[in-house]
Amino acid sequence: MPTVGVKRDLLFKALGRTYTDEEFDELCFEFGLELDEITSEKEIISREQGDSKASGASDVILYKIDVPANRYDLLCLEGLVRGLQVFKNKMEAPRYRRVSPASGEPQKLFITKETAAVRPYAVAAVLRNLTFTQERYDSFIELQEKLHQNVCRKRSLVAIGTHDLDTISGPFTYTAKPPRDISFRPLNQTKEYTATQLMSLYKTDSHLRHYLHIIEDKPVYPVIYDSNGIVLSMPPIINGDHSKITLKTKNVFIECTATDLTKAKIVLDMMVTMFSEYCSQPFTVEEAEVVYPDGKTCKYPELAYRKEKLSSEFINRKVGINESTEKIAQLLTRMCLRSQATGVGDEIEVEIPPTRSDVIHACDIMEDAAMAYGFNNITRTTPRTYTVANQFPLNKLTELLRQDLAAAGFTEALNFALCSQEDIADKLGKKISETKAVHISNPKTAEFQVARTTLLPGLLKTIAANRKMPLPLKLFEISDVVLKDETKDVGARNSRRFCAVYYNKSPGFEVIHGVLDRTMQLLEVKSVRGEGYHIQAADDSTFFPGRCAEIFVHGKSVGRLGVLHPDVINRFELTMPCSAVEMDIEPFLGHTAEISLTHDVPMQEVVKHKFPTQDGSSFCPASTKTVFGDMSTAAGLKALNEFLADRSYIEGFMASQADTAVFNAIPSTPSATFCHLLRWYNHIKSFQRERTSLPAAKSQSDDEAESAEAARVKEQRLAEYAAKKSKKPALIAKSSILLDVKPWDDETDMGKLEECVRSVAMDGLLWGQSKLLPVGYGIKKLQIGCVVEDDKVGTDLLEEAITAFEEYVQSVDVAAFNKI
After folding, report:
1. Contacts for 590-598 with beta carbons within 8 Å, 24 or more apart?
2. Alpha carbons 172 and 419: distance in angstroms, whole number
3. How far apart are CA 114 and CA 176, in angstroms?
4. How far is CA 341 from CA 308, 325, 349, in A?
5. What is the reported pTM?
6. CA–CA separation, 10 vs 12, rounded Å?
7. Distance separating alpha carbons of residues 634 and 631, to the nearest angstrom
8. Integer Cα distance of 754 and 758 in angstroms
9. Burial class (CB in 10 A: 0-12, 13-18, 19+), 695
10. What is the pLDDT of residues 602-630, one digit of tens each?
11. Dihedral through CA 516, CA 520, CA 525, CA 527, nearest 10?
């Protein structure tokens, strides 16, 4: 969720009253927001950079407010105040209008066909006779940044440019040119640069360098000129200094270039609606014409209002309230959605303004009605339906296998689901095109480029990070891999795999083969060709020739095992032989397996009652007497209601003849006073057809009842075991962490950087080996390993300590994290 920082006094002045912190926190909650923090600029700088840097900073109180990610209209002070004022019925929601210029033609923006290769869309508008103050100007700039980080996806979808219209002249041209042909003076610079020079200049800029990748590899860069050839901006990087906005600016030309036209329209609407209240004619926006390469002309901003119709019954049912149609229309109007009853039944007509692009479905309108009604005012009720959760069969099978593999002497590892292309292709002797890998677009680091298609690389990297541990190293992992699948609606699917590796001075193929046999034994699959499982020789570039076998179950291939190829071992920086097995475990969940895993859940009831067992015919009690008392009396019903307060059924976690016996003893439907009993009664009533086929009630024989003496002996033995266990030294949980420490640029002294990193000393921290890895453009990063005690040292603590050396360290990333 985005966080908006507003000055408290300025906010209260705009709201027309002063609130205590508690009162404003409550107001935010009622409006669907959260007051996250009360702080000041000085406190923020002191916390992030130290007290020395905070001297001279402002002590003005700031409210940090968490805003829903799709409420773009609340990302600035103006929209926040407007929304709260309408919510509190202090003002009506304004009506935004697009107007033609008072004199002359509207401003025009021509788009050339060259832009199709980079950013093909653009929209524009004009704010006339705008009055800026320092606070309004700051809010105007901050809203652009919030939109850039949110709906604009860090300028990759939309980039906003704002210009002083009085310093430029239309019509404007949006085109694309080779970088060497673009030359202008960028914002806050004193001389002209070519686009190529600007890319080099901003590589060290802490703010703009994050956007360079959007166009730096393109053959042409987008650029906007006015009629005199003056550069307004080179989106999405920087505006020109000639048209920059100041406090004296009266007329603002706003342009948005984009790869997504819908997002561009939303962003333009937000910019003009939020600040049109400062125009001489409040809430009016002057239109601009955009002419596309095919000659089509569009006028912006659209400022489109649309109407939706829905019933008050729908809102009442979904929210859980019972309000009149007129009352619900009033609630929606308080959320800036002008609403009125149409008079046709309980139908409500809702007008959605251009500021509410988040409303795309009737459920969004219903949510706003619930918010205006007040979540705390909704009466709590017992759900009408009742369901019983069971463990997902695949997860249960996974848990069972984990326990037995650990008992076999193997240690479980949990690795990242993302990895580099090299890990699943080149290092394993395969081509990336053959792997069916799902690629991450614009990956942040080279280590996380694709979703893994095999578990083997993660285990080999874990062994590489723990080579100093005593041999042999026996690791396993049971996790998901991701594979492309055109039959799925998302184009990919998860597949649960099991992988085990054995690393020692000898290959240990017999150990891996034994793990396979043990796994099949646990899965109750016999070693029989055709009806069970068998292995046969296979060729795979990952494995040593002649030392690889394919695993077949019921005639279908499920995986492979063998001795890894020496080249594969070397690529993972290992020095000894290694054997591995990897197979898919989902085929073992047949129909029979699913039923047993779903219903055969170990359990033991705390309270047991005697019920007649099923003898082939349905049970029909002769009276209303039960172990809870007489069901025809309030006392008996109350006892049963209390018993069912935290239970779904009379016995266990499934309906049985025990439920039928008690159900038949109840003469009529219980009253709503006994809410738990009524819930159970309605649930068992739904089993009317299946009631005779429900499982039998549990019979309690004498040998099942635990004697007092047996209970005493059991407690004594448990106490002795606990005392004995307490004397054993506790195991210290440790983890191996591989950190990537990145410098600011290629001039950073990497030796000094490493010295600073190793100077971080903590109880439970032991630094290991390190190496320098190239990142690009002559810059290298430090990759350093360490072993930490989990209870004493965390990754957050390490990152905070290392980034404190801000003269050398730009950022710290966790490259690998493995339990020891």
Report:
1. 593/393, 593/397, 594/393, 597/391, 597/393, 597/396, 597/397, 598/390, 598/393
2. 46
3. 5
4. 12, 6, 6
5. 0.57
6. 6
7. 7
8. 6
9. middle
10. 333 333 334 333 333 334 444 667 778 88
11. 30
